Amino acid sequence: MTLPIRPDLAGLEPYGAPQLEVAARLNVNENPYAPPNGVVDAIAAAVHKAAEGLNRYPDRDFMGLRQDLADYLRTESHVDFLEARHIWAANGSNEVMLHLHQAFGGPGRKVMSFAPTYSMYPEYARDTITDFVTLPRREDFTLDVEAATAAIRETQPVMVIVASPNNPTGTALPLSQVEALLAAADEVPGGCIVVVDEAYAEFRRRGVPSAATLITEHPHLAVSRTMSKAFALAGGRVGYLAAHEAIIDALRVVRLPYHLSAVTQATARAALAHHRELQAQVDEIRAERDETVVWLREQGFTVADTDANFALFGPFEDRERVFEGLLERGVLIRVTGPEGWLRVSIGTPQEMALFRSALLEVTA
Description:
This protein is an alpha/beta fold. It contains twelve helices and twelve strands.
C-alpha cells in the first residue's frame, strides 16, 4: 500500500527505549521507588472524585493545577513571584517542548541546542518542520559559552534549548552561563526564547540554583520541568513550564482542546499535595548516584560529573557488547551519548549492586 507520508518521515522508526522485564531496569531514568501507599490512596480518591464528572470536558485552562505547580516551585526553587498565569502544563515535558516548537518554530526557523543532549530535541524540530542546529560541548560535556553565544548571534535561532542537568551527561549549567545565553538571545532580531530543560532538577547537588530564579528579569526565558522523575509519576504523564505570561499565552494558542484530562489533573494535584512523601527518597537516590560515580571511577572508567539521577560512563571499544552482556545478567541500561559511552539510571541499592557485579563480570 502506498501512503502519502511526508518524505522526511519515510522509513523512520519511532522514538523509544526497550521496555523489558528484567531484574534491574536502569535505562530510562525512572524513579525506582513506587509511590507510598498513602499517596496511592490519595491519588485514587482524587481520581474517583474526577470520575464522577467524566461526562463533562475537563477544565481547559486547569488553573488549579497551574497554581499548585507555582506553589511547588516557590517551595522547591525559592521562586516567590510565580503565579498560575506563569505556568503551563501538558502530557509530559515532551508535549510542553512540542508546544514551544509549534508556537515559535516552523519552516525557515532555527532551533539551537548543544550536543550531546536529549535525543528528542531534533525530533520536536523535525515534527514542526523547524531547522535544528547543534553546537558541540567541550570534552568534559560542559558548555563552551563563548562559542555558544557567538553561534547564537550568527545563526539567529528563534529558540535555544539547553538541558540542566543535561541528558545524557548529567551536566548542570551555572546561572552565569544561562545569563550569557540570554544576553546573546536578546540580540537576535525578532526575538529568541531560551528554554532551560530542568527535567532532573530535583536531583541536583545542594546549592545548585534553578534557572527559574531568573525568570522575573528575563521575559524570553522558559524553564521546563517534569513530574516523571522526582515525583515517581512517570506513568502519570505530567510536565510543566514556568515563564512570563506572554510565552504561556503563545502555548495556549497551539495546544489541542482539553489536552489534559480530568484524571490527569486530579492525579497531578494529589501528587503535588504529597510532594514531600513522594520525594522522600530523592536524597537516597542522590547519595546512591554519588557512590556509583565514585565506584565507576575506581574501576578505571571515565564518568561525567552528574547532577541527575543517572551517570554516563565509558569509553568502551564495543559498548554494544557490554550492553548485551549486562542484559544477559538481568541489567538493562542505555546505549546513548557519544560513541563508546553508556548511561545507567540510578536504581535501588539492590539494583545497583546487581549492576556493579554484572559490569565487573562483563568487563573482566
